[in-house]
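for the recovery benchmark. tokens below, seq after
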């Protein structure tokens, strides 16, 4: 009984096909939270698949109705070995994005796991069924090898993450005592690159909004009215050009952090985002000058135009449109206050002479930014555990560039948050042909077995090491 034999047991669990068999069974359940017809499958995933898997390794399982009508059910699995032991809270989401069945490459289907080389295709293999399956299997491995975890474990699975996690915040607020823990350890999102283990400590926030120019009802013939009627598309284009430059530099500086914190800059010094054969190449000339590629995406705010519309793009006619709209987004770090963004933009547009451009938030809810300080002692502990298993120093990202409901755990529950992802940037997450890489899942199972072994054996950081 040792850490080494536990990792070897985990490796065998993957190599003999047992892990992939479990994953295939889970992928087959069409748990599309965005599809009303698939709503019954959300509960099926928890009650027929995940719940029994936890019960087999000694967890008490509770499937809980979501108090938000849009939200899917939640599952909380608890294994309390001794109230005096440290407690670890974990998380995953059992829902997936729409299957987009007809758009998958010939020979592939979203609900069937198919392996081609190192790639395991199927909806949820990367986001998030494959990732929480890795962590569940690692917990089971430690219990089988040691006979116990050596810590208390709570594992929360939601089924609405792909809809913005409705009800999760409320559930955490109303169940603080039940979810109380010393540290949060979970997996979602991609590694920095396929070949480098990664640890990230939070997420950027995301605020979606529209810029609208509404000048008149309907469209008017360009031959009769051209040169007499203001064109909202032209006005909107110039308004956008006053916000962001042609090379991606945000010109409204009050939307940006004052600087990159020293601990963040230090953590990112050896992190280099890079594309692969299935992803886009990075445009080095784009974005904030003076920042590294890692700092641009993990330590800075960005302004993005997601979509624009004026007139009838599908069938243009010779008419001046009366309206133009741009759907935009700001990704932001904890170093800025999102409550000021829309007023800042509206004020800038007014000053720049674009009073006719109106700014409005697209959604009631938005993802908040979180970040555990890279100098936190839990980070040092996790880096050492991962390096002990893999022999490689993991990339430490203060936060990922995307958004997650990490604020529920970091702010509401006040936990230091450690995310150890088991996917990679080219996984086609949210698109047809989603896949996970078998070597990444295999190494993830080894890493997480080591992490959970160490949580039950080594001296741990003090509970006072809290999240920002």
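predicted aa per position
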């Amino acid at each position: 009984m040792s850490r080494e034999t536990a990792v070897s047991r985990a490796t065998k669990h993957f190599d003999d096909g047992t892990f992939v068999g479990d994953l295939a069974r889970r992928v087959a359940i069409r748990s599309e939270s965005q599809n009303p017809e698939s709503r019954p499958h959300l509960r099926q995933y928890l009650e027929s698949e995940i719940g029994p898997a936890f019960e087999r390794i000694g967890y008490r399982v509770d499937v809980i109705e979501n108090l938000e009508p849009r939200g899917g059910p939640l599952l909380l699995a608890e294994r309390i070995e001794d109230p005096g032991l440290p407690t670890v809270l974990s998380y995953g989401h059992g829902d997936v994005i729409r299957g987009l069945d007809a758009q998958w490459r010939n020979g592939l289907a979203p609900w069937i796991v198919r392996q081609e080389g190192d790639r395991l295709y199927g909806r949820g293999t990367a986001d998030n069924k494959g990732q929480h399956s890795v962590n569940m299997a690692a917990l089971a491995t430690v219990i089988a090898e040691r006979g116990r975890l050596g810590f208390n474990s709570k594992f929360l699975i939601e089924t609405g993450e792909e809809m913005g996690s409705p009800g999760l915040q409320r559930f955490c607020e109303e169940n603080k005592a039940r979810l109380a823990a010393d540290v949060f350890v979970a997996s979602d999102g991609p590694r920095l690159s396929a070949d480098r283990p990664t640890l990230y400590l939070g997420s950027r926030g995301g605020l979606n909004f529209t810029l609208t120019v509404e000048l008149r009802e309907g469209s008017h013939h360009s031959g009769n009215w051209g040169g007499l009627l203001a064109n909202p598309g032209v006005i909107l284009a110039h308004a956008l050009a006053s916000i962001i430059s042609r090379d991606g530099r945000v010109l409204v500086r009050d939307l940006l952090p004052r600087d990159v914190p020293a601990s963040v800059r230090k953590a990112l010094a050896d992190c280099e985002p890079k594309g692969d054969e299935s992803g886009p190449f990075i445009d080095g000339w784009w974005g904030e000058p003076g920042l590294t590629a890692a700092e641009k995406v993990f330590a800075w705010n960005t302004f993005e135009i997601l979509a624009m519309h004026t007139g009838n793009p599908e069938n243009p006619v010779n008419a001046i449109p009366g309206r133009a709209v741009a759907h935009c987004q700001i990704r932001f770090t904890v170093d800025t206050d999102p409550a000021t963004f829309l007023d800042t933009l509206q004020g800038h547009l007014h000053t720049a002479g674009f009073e006719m451009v109106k700014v409005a938030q697209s959604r009631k809810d938005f993802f908040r930014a979180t970040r555990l300080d890279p100098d936190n002692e839990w980070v040092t502990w996790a880096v050492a555990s991962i390096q002990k298993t893999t022999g490689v120093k993991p990339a430490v990202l203060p936060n990922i560039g995307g958004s997650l409901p990490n604020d529920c755990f970091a702010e509401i529950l006040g936990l230091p948050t450690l995310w150890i992802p088991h996917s990679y940037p080219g996984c086609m997450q949210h698109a047809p042909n989603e896949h996970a890489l078998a070597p990444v899942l295999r190494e993830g199972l080894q890493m997480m077995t080591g992490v959970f072994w160490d949580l039950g054996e080594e001296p741990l950081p003090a509970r006072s090491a809290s999240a920002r």
